[in-house]
Amino acid sequence: MELHEYTQYDAVGLAGLVARGEVTSAELTAAARAATAAVNPRINAVVESWPAEDAPVPGSTPLAGVPFLIKDLAVSMRGKRVELGSRLAAGNVAGQDSFLMRRLRRAGLVTLGRTATPEFAYSTTTEPVLYGATRNPWDLTRTPGGSSGGSAAAVAAGITPLAHATDAAGSIRVPASSTGLFGLKPTRGRVSLGPDADEVFNGLAVHGGLSRTVRDSAALLDLIQGPETGDPYFAERPHRPYLEEIARDPGRLRVGLVTTPWSGREVEPAVRAATLAAARLLESLGHRVEVATVDLGVHWEEFVLANARLWSANLVRWMDGFAEAFGRPVDESTVEPEMLASYAWGRTVSGPEFVHALEVRNRVARAIGAQFGARSGDRSAGGRDLLLTPTLPEIPVPLGTYGRGAEEADGLGWLEHLFHRSPFTAAFNVAGTPAMSVPLASDPDTGLPIGVQFAAGYGREDLLFRLAAQLEKAAPWADRRPAVWAGTPRPA
Length: 492
What we know:
Blueprint: H1 3-6, H2 11-19, H3 25-43, E1 46-49, E2 67-71, H4 99-106, E3 110-115, H5 149-156, E4 162-167, H6 173-179, E5 182-185, E6 206-211, H7 214-224, H8 242-245, E7 254-257, H9 269-284, E8 288-291, H10 300-326, H11 337-346, H12 351-369, E9 386-390, H13 411-421, H14 426-431, E10 435-442, E11 449-456, H15 461-474
Helix pairs in contact: 5-6, 10-11, 10-12, 10-13, 11-13
């Protein structure tokens, strides 16, 4: 299969070719490897490639036979390295498959390698010291976002049509917005994080994926969702497969429009214009959009402080564990300045302060949850079906923008900086509610993609998928191509 042909299809489309015998999984794997060779030297998205395992049974699932990539964090593949983008964990090899990896295998996805992540996923840009910066296929001088920046860059450049991602404060939606992809953060408890963890960052982090089409993300979530033995909680099973939901009419939705982040940060004019254009598109489709004021439940400063305590305390445990396992020091020789500062600050977090952070998580979850109606359709609780916001307040920034230097590194200050860069996304992680970034616009001056965010009540991925499919049909985006694209024919 030629590259220009391979990159024309999404994952469901490629699986259909395999199911009908028009192409083999091995041919798709060869095409994905050729795509990697063609573009990865320029974008640095894939940090390690692996030999393909046994070919899946054709047609066994909607994604069987499709090349796939996993993020270098939170999902383990037996016998393969998982290094969390850190020199401290360099050479770490997984002793077993995680629950998610088992489901990816059963889905028939052919996992060919791992993608770049910032150190310990603790950033919304992907510029780790361990493997170097990942570049945005739309503009190689810009960030692809993070922390799933490697997966986003790989999918956006056509290496694979779909890739694994995680999201603890926006790490699916931020890179989706930055690279022109569709990215949905599932509900807390939708996908198991076991067996090595019951929850990551105290329930803030979830597994998901990044894709060029809505149906690919729907198919992936169908195949990986559901509880596993020992999970501390799980979301109610969906009423029907998400692949069926995308064919259903979302009905007339009531949408709350928010254009100013809780931090009060100014939103760039192009981003604001894109969000207002999305609101007008919704209205043209018959939905009701009204300006909303959303109570976060706490002041912004308290919200950021609580997140910093949860994040940094968890970071201390991760780093101490790797330091002990490999006999390495936790210092500037193994850890980046911002992470070292976050580690030092995390060691000062007391037990009562940590519990207070969990109390803040509860207040935010109650406040955000109150914005939405009940699953039955009764809107009396909050009167809205969805919230619409920008995904990011700015277009993708140049690489190096986040660098602050060892002398300026400050644990609390680093998280304040990250949340300043992405003030719209983290609230829905704290609340545990699903949210998605939809690539509806581009910056008129640079051509860089701009995503808008939709958030729903707990367990309502079905509603998000229905709307996403409607928007995809009304304002198609899958045929937009970045400057670096694996399917571009080479000159004769």
